[in-house]
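Contributing new records

If you add data, match the layout below exactly. Sequence lines come first and carry their own label; structure lines follow with theirs. Keep one chain per record. Anything else will be rejected by the validation script.
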Amino acid sequence: MKRFVIYFVIFIFICFILPALLTKRDMATSAVEESMQDNQDENIIKEENVNTYDYQQYGTIRLLHHDTGEVEEVKLDEYLCNVVSAEMPADFEVEALKAQAIVARTYTIYKIKNKKHENADICDDSNCCQAWISKEDRLSKWDQNLKESNWAKIQKCVNETAGKIITYNNQPINAFFHSNSGGITELPVNVWGGGSDMPYLQVIETSGEDAYAQYASEVVFTQDELLSKLKEKYSDIQIDFNNDEDIKILEYTDSNRVKTVKFGNYEISGTEARSILGLKSTNFEIIKENGNIKFAVKGYGHGVGMSQTGADSLAKQGSNCEDIIHHFYANVEIKKI
């Protein structure tokens, strides 16, 4: 009888008590391991967010907020995360985003060294300097499931290029960029009338830009609408819409953009026509159809320097960020500040 009781107790211990003890131990071990993994992940995130590059006098910049007039002091690479997220889609290739980070950093340093604003280094108005958006506003515009991953991607691209700028003759370049070149970039002289001191900005062809929505657009006017638009600038303009010579492109630039166009009794530059008529580029054709005048446009932006969709296209073809920069800017070097 005693032997039976002993066997019974051993049976209960093996079948019920021992597994419970082992399960509890495994759960405790798993909890510890999970906690350790969480800490490791947290440390990795922290490490990714910590930029150890010493910018010296460029570590903090003064940013002028155009709408409020407020001047904010912000760390350079934190500012660049806001710029890159405002200037380039987060779903572009990593190497394209890295190129954008280097270009934006270069542009910022150039602005600091060639001061334009009295009490600030740079402003957040894209018509004056380069675009900027707060992190909160940027996150609010992304899908919920992409918010953190998009921001982490941009932050990583900025941090992994920390300190890098583009130089020509050991000086930071005026690193112009735009959305889509329409397949070929433009010389600054044809946009702003200058640029002889920027020989790194040349006419460059890039394949693959026609795959992007920014490549093609069109604007259609009735005859009255076109005349009304032009009269906002030239009140005495007269156009004979039955005469093909009264609406005609007279001259093209080396990149096949419109240099001079005739509207009736006026000849104006392609850049002015783009501004007056709200065209996305000076690379346009004029097509008369059904009594209307259509402007078929290639590209988006002034066309000088790096094309953002061109950068993404090159990245898709296997180019890294430095390859992309050397493609768009001639005879430059990429150096640490």
